[in-house]
């Protein structure tokens, strides 16, 4: 049966590009998911396999990262217009470019009073929380006598665009990771904390206030810790909560290390001065630990996924 080729397009989908603009100590983030779809004279590649008109999808990916450096990312629209114009005007066989962009919005983390005097600002200039609500969780158990309340949050995405290093680790014959002295630290915080309120005889905590305060301490510890590992940051977040909230005796974290890899722009004659990153979604490091008030028995389940 004779067949003909109908509508067709191709390109690299979901290029996760993060651009950090460093204005002294104040950093700005643009975090985009860019999908490129090109069409034009592409009959031959489908009918005969001739690639003579095909700009590789890999090149479209590289162009996204190179343009982030060369033109910056002022807005998703401006960035998309640059890209679309480039593909259509520089490649004869390409007649149409469709660029779709999703933008992740970030806001700065408010600093603690002590730190605001130290840094001279109410916000940490390189620490961000992704906009949009985290999920708040709670689990209540009662056996007729004793209460156990474990509350927490999930998917609170935070990023430090500096003040994070990772070096001095074990190296065996499979280790290829380069030591990092200024890296992005980004994670989706999942935390669960256990209240020491167990009986109707005791005064009940103010659950709303406690949640707000625990979240605030987690965010501030993340922003204010100069991190040598995500493990160290985790411990700081937990101990800040335990030390500031007497109603909480135990807290557990599950923290994915959302890796951001510097893109090598040398092949395009561009220098990447800690500006353009590839945000990988998997695999990710997963760092998990419980922090306890001294003398307290751990009760939060190791596997927090069902909390
Ligand atoms: O903060 C980190 N902790 C690790 O244990 C680790 N391992 C790794 O490869 N990168 C990182 N980063």
TrEMBL record:
Keyword match Oxidoreductase: yes
Coiled coil: none
Protein name: Uricase
Bilayer-spanning residue ranges: none
Listed Pfam families: Uricase
Similarity section: Belongs to the uricase family.
EC class name: oxidoreductase
Role description: Catalyzes the oxidation of uric acid to 5-hydroxyisourate, which is further processed to form (S)-allantoin.
EC id: 1.7.3.3
Taxonomic lineage: Bacteria, Bacillati, Actinomycetota, Actinomycetes, Kitasatosporales
Listed GO MF terms: urate oxidase activity
Organism, scientific name: Streptomyces noboritoensis
Pathway(s) this gene product operates in, as recorded in its UniProt entry: Purine metabolism; urate degradation; (S)-allantoin from urate: step 1/3
Keywords for the protein's UniProt record, in alphabetical order: Oxidoreductase, Purine metabolism
Family matches, as SUPFAM superfamilies: Tetrahydrobiopterin biosynthesis enzymes-like
Record's keyword annotation contains Oxidoreductase: yes
């Amino acid at each position: 049966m004779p067949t003909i080729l109908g509508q067709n397009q191709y390109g690299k989908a979901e290029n996760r590009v993060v651009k950090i603009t460093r204005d002294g100590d104040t950093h700005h983030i643009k975090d985009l998911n860019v999908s490129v779809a090109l069409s034009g004279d592409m009959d031959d590649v489908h009918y005969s396999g001739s690639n003579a008109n095909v700009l590789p999808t890999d090149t479209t990916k590289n162009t996204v990262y190179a343009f982030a450096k060369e033109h910056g990312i002022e807005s998703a629209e401006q960035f998309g217009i640059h890209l679309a114009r480039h593909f259509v005007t520089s490649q004869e066989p390409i007649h149409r470019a469709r660029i779709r962009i999703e933008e992740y919005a970030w806001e700065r983390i408010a600093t603690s009073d002590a730190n605001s005097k130290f840094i001279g600002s109410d916000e940490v200039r390189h620490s961000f929380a992704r906009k949009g609500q985290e999920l708040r969780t709670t689990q209540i158990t009662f056996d007729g006598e004793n209460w156990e309340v474990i509350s927490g949050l999930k998917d609170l995405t935070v990023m430090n665009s500096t003040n994070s290093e990772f070096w001095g680790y074990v190296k065996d014959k499979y280790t290829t990771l380069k030591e990092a002295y200024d890296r992005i630290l980004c994670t989706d915080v999942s935390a669960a904390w256990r209240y020491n309120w167990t009986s109707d005889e005791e005064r009940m905590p103010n659950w709303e206030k406690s949640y707000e305060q625990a979240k605030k301490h987690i965010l501030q510890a993340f922003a204010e810790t100069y991190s040598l590992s995500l493990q160290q940051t985790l411990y700081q977040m937990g101990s800040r909560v335990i030390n500031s909230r007497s109603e909480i005796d135990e807290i557990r974290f599950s923290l994915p290390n959302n890796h951001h890899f510097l893109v090598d722009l040398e092949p395009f004659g561009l220098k990447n001065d800690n500006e353009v990153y590839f945000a990988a979604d998997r695999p990710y490091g997963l760092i998990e630990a419980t922090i306890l008030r001294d003398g307290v028995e751990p009760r939060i389940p190791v596997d927090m996924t069902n909390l």
